[in-house]
Amino acid sequence: GVFLVHFILNLIQAAEAGMEGKRGRLVYTDLAVAGILLCLMRNAGIFLVIAVLVILLLTSPRKQWKALAALGCVLVVVTVYSVICKNVLKIPTGEVRENFSVPIQQMAMVYRDKGLGLNVEMTGEQMEAMEEVIPLAGLANMVENDSADIAKSLFQEEVFAKNPGKYISLYFALGKQNPQIYKDAFRFLTLP
After folding, report:
1. SS3 letters across 150-179
2. Which one of 53, 82, 142, 173 is most buried, by most CB atoms within 10 A?
């Protein structure tokens, strides 16, 4: 959590510096270091860095070119570090489920709410696909709002790896059909 806050504060500072035309290298160096630390401490941090990079590219690439360069450095350093750890040092990669805590929890809450008879849009086919990748049958009532541990522990990485497109499209379909549940799941997992 600390590195996430550190990264966000540095991102805000860099955005302000870019909009005001300031040329302080320290601001962008701090942003790069914060991004690297975020990604090294939390595997899913790389997704945040990529999202911010895309947003900056789409909104104000000329004004924020230094921030874009700093975030590009983050991607390069983290990628090189990962390759060295995996290929040179032979350190195995972590479990995929750790990177998908929020999406797994969002889907599990849709499944749980459907089982509780709440107003949830989920077809029988979607429920079957959900049970393949996160077999919650009989356990849905154990899904807690503020913890993804139960659903995450049931996540079937091998099943997901065989057909990721199917389950990624399921994730987006359920989110489109049940946006409030997805928002609530994200809020419960990220806010104190």
Report:
1. HHHHHCCHHHHHHCHHHHHHHHHHHHHHCH
2. 53
Q: What is the pLDDT of residues 123-182, one digit of tens each?
A: 999 999 999 999 887 777 788 888 888 888 889 989 998 999 999 999 999 999 999 999
**What sign results for the dihedral spanned by CA atoms 171, 174, 177, 182?**
negative
Residue 95 has pLDDT above 80, yes or no: no
- Is the pTM higher than 0.85? The answer reads no
**92 secondary structure, DSSP code:** P
Cβ neighbours of residue 144 closer than 8 Å, sequence gap 6 or more: 150
Please work out, in degrees rounded to the nearest 5, the angle formed at the alpha carbon of residue 145 by the alpha carbons of 156 and 147: 55
Q: What is the pLDDT of residues 138-148, one digit of tens each?
A: 777 788 888 88
Output the six-digit token pair for 64.
Answer: 């924020």
According to DSSP H, which parts of 21-143 are helical?
25-41, 45-59, 65-83, 101-115, 124-133
